[in-house]
Hints:
- The complex is a heterodimer of chains A (621) and B (123).
- Chain A is α+β, with helices and mostly antiparallel strands and 621 residues long.
- Chain A contains 18 helices and 22 strands.
- A 5-stranded parallel beta sheet of chain B has the order 2-1-3-4-5, with helices on both faces.
- Classes of the chains: A alpha+beta (621), B alpha/beta (123).
- Chains A and B meet through helix 14 and helix 15 of A and helix 1 and helix 5 of B.
Amino acid sequence: MKNFIKSNISQESLALLLTQSPVALSMLMGNDFVIQVANPQMLKLWGKESEIIGLKLIDALPELKGQKFIDILTDVKTSGITYKGYKELAYIVRNGKKEECYFDFIYAPIYNDDESEILGVSVVATETTEQVLAERKVKETEYKFETLIKESDYAVAVYTGKDHIIEMANDKILNAWGKTDAVIGKKIKEGIPELEGQPFLQILKDVYESGETYSATEDKVLLAKDGKLDTFYYNFSYKPLKNQNGEVYAILNFATDVTDLVLAKKQIQENKDKYKNLADSLPIIIWTADKDGKIDYYNKKWYDYSGFEGIDDRKNASQKILHPDDFPKAMEIWKTSQKNKSAYEIEYQFKDKTKENGYRWFLGRAIPIKDNDGEVVQWIGTCTDIDEFKQFQQQKDNFLGIASHELKTPLTSLKLYSQFLEKNLRKQQDDNNAIVALKMDEQINKLNNLINDLLDVTKIQNGKIILNHSEFNFDELVNEVVDEQQMSTSQKISLETEGIGNISGDRNRISQVMSNLINNAIKYSPESDRILITTKLLENNNVFFSVKDFGIGIPEDKKDRVFEQYYRVSGSKEHTFPGLGLGLYISSEIIKRSGGRIFVNTTEGKGSDFCFEIPKVNKPI
Amino acid sequence: MSKKIYVVDDSPAILDSVKLMLNMEGYEVDNYERGSEMFNALSTSSKPDVILMDMWLSGEDGRDICKMIKAHQDFKNIPVVIMSASRGLGDTAIESGAIDFIPKPFDLGEIVEKIRYYSEKAD
């Protein structure tokens, strides 16, 4: 400015030059820094109009009061030393609003012609507010980015350059690597040498070169922690960071340790496989269904047996495999089971794919698995091939049928011979021997009853026991049976009856049940001297019959089992009581088929009270 | 003249005991082990007052024999009583034309009563 002023350029020319300059220029003259020149750019920077020209700087920009600029100007004017400001902050009032502005500027002294005196200060300024704010923003962003990485719940690292130098790595990723922050600044392959030979370095290279993000879930990685190489599983991504030109300069690595999850999943899968293998190795069909009964699994046996593929719904599968006669029954039992949330058991026939029109018997079972609230969460079912068992059972029933039939042939003639003998002996008035012949006949009757029991069992098994209903006098029947039974025991059979009158039912079969119950009462109360029979008509119009004895009784936990086939009360004395263990089973079946129920009230050591009730007007079942 | 009873059973012991018993009651008894043999005898011997026949006759079914008798003009009025150890088959015996069914084993009294009843009814 010194030389510039010195030359003989007119003030007007100088002013014009300054006015047209693309940079903001101003000349502040005298000790009060009167604005002698301020070009439009400077006025714009100051946010002022040209009226301020000729005013003292402090009057034109009163907001400079308290700021450092007047002092600096004074220093320059006094010392003659040029001052360069770089991105200096100034508060300027523009459009009535105080703004934070940044400037690059030069304050230079203006000398008089002989350079003996400093007349003022020239100002050249460029506004850098935008640049400063942008830089600040970048810095803030960088800070935020760094904080984000450090505070992140994820393991995060940034690798810069082609060599993937670890520029940033938060504690989580350092911890995951089993390394300290000493690895920062190192190439990744040097910082984590165990990655050599694993796919990650190649992937990083590919991401860097292609600019495309790579992400993986539950990926296996071997990392050396505490000097020991262990397997871990991570969900991670390598995201390329690009500059303004779209060139990759770094890779951002996000990672989450999912080792526990993967191991748990593996464990579950292993368990699943284990149970699947177990289920597949079993010789029975196994299926599972969801809470609504929708089948979601069949084991191998199902597919082997049926030859089906995939998972059919229950109705389709049942329709395809079941014997048409069994299908409605199976659907019904399933419906009931589902409604009651209860287990079921059913015997039905499955199509045998190896034989045309062939079927095999299966035992189907299902149980509901319930949660703590008793709600069904799953159904588990099995189908067991019982065809051979059924055949065996059939053979056994056939055999029993034939055997009892065959046994009856000699029994018939034996009975006739004994009766013939008795009759002849009576004729000859040999009463003593006649009684012996009569006793023989009684024993033949007992033998016949045993054979009939065997025959009845086979009939029950085959569903062939048929009741022949007729109307008869119940009281007469009770008296008849009691009289007959009284003849064979020394125990006093007493009778408490209400007149019941005529009922409808199978007289012979009901008589058989009464005889069975009384016989049992006699048999199981050898120490007692009395038996009590009660009959009455209940409010529901059922006929009630009970036989009370004062004998050995039945343990509480076994009392419902006494009606099962072949069941005999267990215990040390079991073998001392005669019988096949069929009487109560047969009686129970007869009562059930008569539409009634049979039950026992009993106390071990005190005796039992066997009861049945049947509808007075009976409808055969 | 005493009543004549044909007894058909594949068991000689039953034939023997029934005969013994019925003879004692004053009946004349002809025994046959085969149903077909008895059916032939109907044409060749004097007709019985009652036929007492077992159901299972070693290859023959007493009910079939009964049907043959009932289908024959000359014999259809002869009462046939079928006996069997298969108690449940009584209905089928009646269906084949038998007048009654007696489950085995039976009491002497029962059989005598039935034979007397049907033989006198035939008169």
